[in-house]
Amino acid sequence: MNAPLRRVGMVVMVLFGLLFVNLNWVQGYKADDYRTSDYNGRVQVAQYDRKRGNIEAGGTALASSKETSGKLKFLRSYVDGPMYAHVLGYQPVNIGPTGIERSENDFLAGTSDQLFGDRVRDLFTGDQTAGGNVLLTLSRRAQQTAFEEMTKNKVGATKGAAIALNPATGAVQALVSMPSFDPNVLVSHDTEAASNAYAALNNDPNKPLNNRALSELAPPGSTFKVIDAAAALENGYTKDSKIPAGPSYTAPTSGTPIRNAAPSICPEAEVTLMDALTESCNTGFAQLAVTLGADKIKEKAAAFGFGDDDLTVGRLDENGIATAASQTGEIKNPDGGDDPAALAQSAIGQFDVKMSPLEGAMIAAAVANNGSQMRPYLVQQLLGPDRTTDYYTADPRELRQSVSEPVAATLREMMISVVQNGTGKAARISGYQVGGKTGTAQSDPTVKDHGWFIGFTMKDGKPISAVAVFLETAGSGGSSEAARIAKEIMQAVIQDGGGK
């Protein structure tokens, strides 16, 4: 054989060798990834051969499957679709699933390893193994209240979110993102219609598919003062400690003064820490933060969950819906020293500080629960197709100790003062202890301010609910309306048995 033919032969052998390696890599190492891909059409179609399990709350099936006469045997259906859309998500034919439908897909579809015994049993009976059932923590009354109050808010806000947690367990009691959408149109077996509906929602400038409660961040405004107060209390201050205040404060290195929302707010040279939170004194907290330093503020924010980029909300084993990590920013100069101007702005929830509604509720929950921040979760139980076998029941666990018990007790007293005597009066509930903090946040000079409220309700020392309400570009009265909506949600939790 001459040299050119030998070279050609070697090249062909090398190419066959590479092809062989690639085939083995695809069939072995990548097989599971391709088999379980959201875009594997054969797998998706095969899933419709068996009935998908229910997603339920309060004994009602929120998502279920009904038999059809088409090629795809079962059609997914959502009760009160827009009300639960951002929790349940959707399980379409030709688009990737979202929400609980995605995180619990294997169990709902009946393909989970947990349901292996059911599949073996059905080999002998000839039955097609149905999917398992997912029971959620949601209070249906609280969810309905949150949805209706948000969508009919009195300040005309069209975007925002509300979330409520059980402070003692971390169970999600309500979760609403606004605007919402109807997931039923996305699971149609008419794949062209479903794709068109998805494209319209995805291109909507109001982004209805976004889960604003878990995955979007915004400046928290004065709700961040709870973090400042916690940092102060754990560094030698008491609720009666005097801090500098006044009508205006200009931080070193800054030419822009910080002022209070109204001239009547803490015009005196000094105020107590309690009064500063009650009145929402910008100048007081700006100066307090500069005195404490950026490291102490950032450290306390982290103790409440800022910067936690691994948190999911679903099961307690980290199988759930992804969340966005709240952040404080660096608050430092290029040389590593504090930037007083940035620190003063950060103290009032501006500059680079960004927070999710989930984080706001978790802050309030930790204060109500003696400083212990519980891991939030949505999945209470997994039941087999026959509903008799319990494959999972949530066992609440602590995520972190945000503050000491004495500091938590003082923060509760201070936040209760906000609702009783200060900016959060709209959140009062007769016969219950309600604490909270309002927030008005600027994001862009060309749009209206955001309105925030984070808070909790208690009875006889027992925490019942912790809530965060965020009204995007709500304008004047936004924080008061957020407090009112939070009250309605907490009352619904109480009426649904949370106050027992």
Order of neighbouring strands in the sheet with most strands:
3-2-1-4-14-15
Count of DSSP strands: 19
Helix content: 25-40%
Number of helices: 18
Uncertain ranges: none
Biggest pleated-sheet summary = 6 strands, mixed
Whole-number mean pLDDT? 92
Strand content range? 15-25%
Terminal Cα separation, in Å? 91 Å
Q: What Rg, in angstroms, do the CA atoms define?
A: 26 Å
Shape: globular
Based on secondary structure, the structural category is alpha+beta
Overview of the structural elements:
The protein has 500 residues and is an alpha+beta fold. Helix content is 38%, strand content 19%. The chain has helices at residues 3-29, 31-35, 41-47, 81-88, 99-103, 105-109, 116-125, 140-151, 191-203, 212-215, 225-233, 273-279, 282-292, 294-303, 340-347, 357-368, 405-421, 478-498, and strands at residues 55-57, 60-67, 74-78, 133-136, 159-165, 172-178, 242-244, 248-249, 258-259, 270-272, 312-314, 320-322, 372-374, 379-383, 390-393, 398-401, 433-441, 450-459, 462-472. The strands form 6 sheets. It has a 6-stranded mixed beta sheet. It has a 5-stranded antiparallel beta sheet with strand order 6-5-19-18-17, with helices on both faces. A hairpin with a 2-residue loop joins strand 18 and strand 19 (462-472). Helix 11 packs across helix 14. The mean pLDDT is 92.
Write a compact overview of the structure shown:
It is built from 18 helices and 19 strands.
